[in-house]
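FAQ: What does the model actually see?

It sees only this:
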Amino acid sequence: EYKVVLHSESMDLVSSSAFALADLVRPFCYQAVFLPVLPTALSEVVQAPVPFLVGMHSSCVGGHLGVDGS
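And it is asked to produce this:
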């Protein structure tokens, strides 16, 4: 079980990609939080100690994941 964060400048692309990835793992039992579009106000959720699949705007990635977002 992993933490998966998808990010892009386009929220349509993030959402579509999140649903596509969720459909690809559907034959398996993936028990994790699924948030195709994580609101900016809740971006600290990625610090949670649980597995998840979330989509975020690229501008939110750097501060919460410890990466530069590029």
